[in-house]
Amino acid sequence: MKKHILIADDDYGLRLILRALLDSKGYEVRCVSGGEAALDAYANARAAKWPYELIVTDLGMPYTNGFEVAAKIRGVGDSETPILFMTASNEEIGLNERAAELTPFQILYKPFELDEFVRRIECVLAQSETNCEPC
């Protein structure tokens, strides 16, 4: 069965690119434009017994940001689904410390190369299956 990935980002163009890229690699991808839509998609997938194996979320989305999405997911008792945070800000104060409360997680800084994005997706998914060292 294909790996099930949720991507939440308010940048429509980036969502299109990432979805096409991951589709071409054989992943089942759902893209949403914001945090509330991500939480709805997450809840619906769990209810359908086909949960996401990875959540990729932008930290800088308006209204409900990536940290809030992750905190709510962890708040419902899901401490295992890995989260890949994307951010354009490498100067956010306490970024690693704040994200560390929401493990397992990874941070990918924008702009990034598409091959780096795929490598991180593959690494995070492999890590969650084998409990190996972080990527």
The strand line-up of the biggest sheet is 2-1-3-4-5
Number of helices: 5
By DSSP, the count of extended strands is: 5
| Secondary-structure arrangement, i.e. CATH architecture | 3-Layer(aba) Sandwich
Q: Which residues sit in consecutive blocks of at least 5 with pLDDT less than 50?
A: none
Find the CATH topology. Rossmann fold
Strand content: 15-25%
Distance between the termini: 24 Å
Biggest beta sheet summary: 5 strands, parallel
Q: Shape from CA axes? A: globular
Q: Please estimate the helix content.
A: 40-55%
What would you give as the CATH superfamily?
Response regulator
- CATH class label: Alpha Beta
Give the averaged pLDDT, no decimals.
88
> How are helices and strands ordered from N to C?
EHEHEHEHEH
* Whole-angstrom Rg: 14 Å
Determine the structural class based on helices, strands and strand pairing.
alpha/beta
Give the domain tally: 1
